Amino acid sequence: MASHDKSFRAGETKGREDGPSDGGRERQGRGSQGQDYDTAQAAKDKTHESKDQSGSYISEKAGAAKQKASETAEATKEKASRAAEQVKSMAQGAKESVKHTFGMAGDEDQDRDDPPRYT
Fold this sequence. Notes:
With 119 residues, the protein is mainly α. The chain has helices at residues 2-18, 22-101.
């Protein structure tokens, strides 16, 4: 057991001799800390830059989507308006047809080219 203690202490002593002193650790720590700070700052800057790029990309795409939706809505409105006019015209034609069928059409409603009907 005594030989085991000696080898342990020999390694401990050697470790102390090879390691840096406290002042060296402080200098290394600040250097390492400085590098860590620089790395963190660079990562932060890159994150902000990426966020700005992402924000402008999303804003650009949202604007394009809004424009497309507006154009689609306008086209739909025009189509609905034309369809409403067609329905109105067809209903008017049906109304006139029914009037003529039942003999309820007035003189102003009859076409001038039709010969008079005698029954």
